[in-house]
């Protein structure tokens, strides 16, 4: 059960093109698993911005001088994140979390490849810790537009068996996309499972590459959200169930983590005619 916490900003730090905010939010850390997200109130009490903004949880600490804390990393996108970027130590910040379904962890020590795009690597870093604790081999592939948009390189390097980097402009690692590097990493590490978080086109390409090799993937999607708690249906995407039927599934409660080969990537953003309950036909 998620908690709503009237929290307080403990630290704000700049990390390349991003900002990382640590919020005192007792109770949330104990419930959090890698892949969960927070819904953060923006704009203050008199704001017209009614909708909370979703952010993947990066780091949690369940005890300390200040009580439990939760940290997330964000890029300024529009009005809500611009407001967040002006928060300072001691400011109030109301957060709800942990939300969504986290990454599922393997039961045995398997070979795992993590693929992060931009700030999408933030939830993969605590996942890497959990996988290492299970004895997994962890290979990491990070990509971004430019070096200042790569998040968590040093942290990943410390814990991963190997790290490969790509940037669109070549400012760090190989010039190109993570998917240029991924086939070699999957083959070299004999990957048993792939976890990914990043922009939707990247997730699609990663899921397809993994599927071509018969490797299961789990991807954390970023669909626009309004309520974040399963009420409004803003965040739906077409997902194929074990019965072979496509359903419009709420990514805030049934995701954000999905099996990569279950998402109908070419139909994301629309309701396929053959989806259960689709107005243009489909199964009812
Ligand atoms: C599960 C999840 C995890 C996310 N994790 C992160 C993260 O770790 N770091 C980060 O920087 N961003 C993350 N995002 C994206 C972040 O929620 C948006 O950038 C943010 O909501 C933009 O708000 P805004 O007011 O600045 O922009 P505006 O465009 O003014 O926002 C308007 C509305 O559209 C929605 N929206 C706009 N862009 C997006 C988007 N790309 N994805 C989802 N909703 C959007 C917002 O919720 C808001 O209600 C995540 C989104 C989701 C769904
Ligand atoms: S955001 Fe409202 S149902 Fe998912």
Task: Give an overview of the whole structure.
The protein has 284 residues and is of the alpha/beta class. Helix content is 18%, strand content 32%. It has six helices and 16 strands. It has helices at residues 28-31, 79-84, 124-133, 153-159, 178-189, 200-212; strands at 3-15, 18-24, 37-40, 53-56, 59-61, 69-74, 92-99, 111-117, 137-144, 162-167, 174-175, 193-197, 217-220, 236-240, 246-250, 257-259. It has a seven-stranded antiparallel sheet with strand order 4-3-7-1-2-6-5. A seven-stranded mixed sheet has the order 11-10-9-8-12-13-16, with helices on both faces. Strand 1 (3-15) and strand 2 form a beta hairpin. The longest helix has 13 residues, at 200-212. The protein is globular. FE2/S2 (inorganic) cluster is lined by residues 225-228, 230-235, 250, 252. Residues 37, 51, 53-56, 72-75, 77-81, 119, 122, 222-226, 256 line the site of flavin-adenine dinucleotide (FAD).
Descriptive tags:
284 residues; 7-stranded antiparallel sheet; 6 helices; 18% helix; globular; binds flavin-adenine dinucleotide; binds FE2/S2 (inorganic) cluster
């Amino acid at each position: 059960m998620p908690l709503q916490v009237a929290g307080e900003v403990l630290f704000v730090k700049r990390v390349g093109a991003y900002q990382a905010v640590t919020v005192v939010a007792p109770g949330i850390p104990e419930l959090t698993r890698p892949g969960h997200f927070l819904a953060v109130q923006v704009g203050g009490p008199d704001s017209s911005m009614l909708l909370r903004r979703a952010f993947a949880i990066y780091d949690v600490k369940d005890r300390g001088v200040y009580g439990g804390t939760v940290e997330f990393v964000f890029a300024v996108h529009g009005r809500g994140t611009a407001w967040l970027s002006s928060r300072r130590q001691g400011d109030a910040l109301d957060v709800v979390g942990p939300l969504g379904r986290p990454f599922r962890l393997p039961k045995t020590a398997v070979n795992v490849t993590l693929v992060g795009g931009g700030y999408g690597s933030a939830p993969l870093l605590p996942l890497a810790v959990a996988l290492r604790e299970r004895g997994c081999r962890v290979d990491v592939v990070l990509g971004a537009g430019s070096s200042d948009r790569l998040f968590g390189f040093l942290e990943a390097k410390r814990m991963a068996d190997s790290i490969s980097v790509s940037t669109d402009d070549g400012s760090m690692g190989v010039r190109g996309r993570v998917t240029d590097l991924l086939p070699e990493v999957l083959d070299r590490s004999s990957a048993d499972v792939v976890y990914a978080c990043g922009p939707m086109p990247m997730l699609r390409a990663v899921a397809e590459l993994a599927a071509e090799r018969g490797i299961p993937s789990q991807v954390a999607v970023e669909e626009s959200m309004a309520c974040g708690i399963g009420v409004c249906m803003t965040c739906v995407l077409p997902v194929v169930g074990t019965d072979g039927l496509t359903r419009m599934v709420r990514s805030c409660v049934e995701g954000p983590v999905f099996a990569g080969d279950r998402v109908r990537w070419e139909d994301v953003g629309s309701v396929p005619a053959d989806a259960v309950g689709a107005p243009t036909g489909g199964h009812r």
